[in-house]
Amino acid sequence: MMRHDLIVIGAGPAGLSAAIEAARLGMDVAVFDENARPGGQLFKQIHKFFGSKEHHAKERGFRIGEDLLADAEKLGVAVHLNATVMGIYEGREVLVKHEDETVHAKADAIIIATGAAENMIPFTGWDKPGVIGAGAAQALMNLQGVMPGKRILMVGSGNVGLVVSFQLLQAGCEVAAVIDAAPRIGGYGVHAAKVARTGVPFYTRHTVVEALGKDRVEGAVIAEVDDHFQPIPGTEKTLDVDTICIAVGLSPMSQLADTAGCDLVLDRKRGGTVPVIDEYGETSVPNVYCAGDAAGIEEASTAMILGRISAIRAAEKAGFLGAAEFTARADEYAASLSKLRRGMFAPQNKGRTDMTETDEGYPLSKSLLAHGFLEPNEVSAFPCATVHEVGVHPVIECTQNIPCNPCQDACRFGCITVGDDIVKLPVIDETKRCTGCGMCVASCSGQAIFLVDEAYEPGYASVGIPYEFVPVPKAGARGHALNRAGAPICDAEVVSVKYTKAMDKTVLLTMKVPAEFASEARFYRD
User: Fold this and answer.
1) pLDDT digits (tens, 9 = 90+) for 81-118
2) Phi/psi class of residue 75: alpha, beta or left (left: φ > 0; alpha: ψ in -120 to 50)?
3) What is the distance between the alpha carbons of residues 209 and 239, in angstroms, rounded to a whole number?
4) pTM, whole model, 2 decimals?
5) pLDDT category, 37, cuts 50, 70, 90?
6) Which CATH fold topology does 2-117+250-340 show?
7) Which sequence spans correspond to the domains of the chain?
8) Do 298 and 271 meet the contact criterion of CB atoms below 8 Å apart?
9) At what angle do helices 159-170 and 189-196 cross, to 10 degrees?
10) Integer Cα distance of 306 and 301 in angstroms
11) Does domain 120-246 have CATH number 3.40.50.720?
12) What is the pLDDT of residues 49-59, one digit of tens each?
C-alpha cells in the first residue's frame, strides 16, 4: 500500500495548487489524475485571466498550467497520470486503477479536486456526430490542433460559451450564432463584445430544437422560447452549420465525496449537488476536503486559492504548520478570494436579473445584455468609453463591475486607475500623457481598451485595437472597419502593427479611418 501525508485527487488548477502548497510545507504529497496529462482545463485556456496580479491576471491559462507543473516537479510532488480513483474508504484509503493494475493508497488527509462535468441538453438529433461540448471543442482546438467544424452554432452565452466562441474564430472556424434560452447574455460583457464585433449574431430567448442531417450534423433548427423556456411554434429558424457546440453550464463532480460518506447538499448557486464544507473546504468526514469546481462552480483563479486554503488546513492539522502562521495565511487567502467574489458576477448574484446599474451608478447596457454590443447612445454614458480631442488616448469599453485591474499596472504614466477595489470601473486621468505604447490594450483580459487619435491626419482618425488572429495584416493593408455590432462601416487602412514579447501574443493593430468613425470603428477585416 502506498502511504502519504496528503493525497490530492485531480491535477487541475485546484489540485495542483493544493499539492504545491502542501509540499512547500514539507508534506509528502501524491496526486492522482485519470487523464493522460495534468493541468485540467488550464491547458485548453489560451485566453488571459481576469483578477489582479496575485490571481495571475493577464496571464494565459496554459502558461499558468506550465508554471504549476514546474513548481510541482521542483517540490517532488508525485503526479500519477492515467490513475482513476474508484473510491474513498474508511481511514482515508483510496482505491486507484493505475494503468493496468489496481493499487491502494492511504493518507492523513485527502483533497478532492475532481472538477466538473459539462451539462448537456436533449433535442432531436442531439446524439449525431457534430454535437459536442464546449470543453471538447477546446480540447480539439487547443490541445490537438484540430478544427471542430467549419461553421458552428454555439448554445450557451456564459463565459465558457463566449470564450470558446472567440477561440473557434481564432482557429479559423465560422460561428453562425450564439444562442441562449435566458433573456440576457450570461457571461462577461467584454467577452460578448469581442465576439459581437467580429460579426457573430446573438439570439437570447432561443434554444436549439433539432440537429438536421442523416449521419452527421448538416444544419440546426433554433426557436424562440417562452417564459417557461419552451419553444414557441412558428418562430423556428434554420441555420447552415456542421457543428453544434453545447455550453450550458457545468456540474460539480461530487461522486467521490459521496463514496467517502460526505454529507451532500443541492445548492443551485454552487452548480448542483456538492459536499457540505466549512470555510477551509473540509467536509463532514474529518480530514477529507473538497476544492475547486468539485465544491462549487467558479473561475479557475478562485479554484487555485481554494486548493491552497484546503492544503494549509490539512498541513496545520497534521502538524506541518503552526497555528499562528496558519491563521495568517488563511486570512491572506481569504482576502484574495474576497476580491474575486465581488461585483455583479459574484456567486451570490448568480441568476439575478434585477441589476440595472453599475456600482458607480451608470446604467447597464440593455443592448450589451441582449445582443453583445453597446449602442452608441449607451457608450456615451461611460466617461472612459467616450473620445476626446486630446491626441492619442485610451478609450475603455469596460462597463460592468468585473474583478480585474491589469490595465492599472500596464501604464507606467498612471493614465488608468482602478483603485484598491478591483471590481470598480477603470478611470482615465486626463492630466496624464498617453504615449500610445499599447500596453494597456495588450494587458486588458477582456480586450476592451482601444487607442484613439481623432486628429491623426486631416479628416482621418486612428484607432488602435487588440488583435489576436492570424495572419496579422501588415502595415499598408486595406480593408474595412467594423463597428461594435460587427457591421462594416467604412474603408480602413492598417497604418501600424505593434507587438512586443510583453504583449504576450496580443497585437496592437492601428487602422486609419475617416474621422467621423473614430468612436465606432472597433475591428478590422481584410
Assistant:
1) 999 999 999 999 999 998 889 999 999 999 999 999 99
2) alpha
3) 12
4) 0.95
5) confident
6) FAD/NAD(P)-binding domain (3.50.50)
7) 2-117+250-340, 120-246, 379-525
8) no
9) 30
10) 9
11) no
12) 999 999 999 99
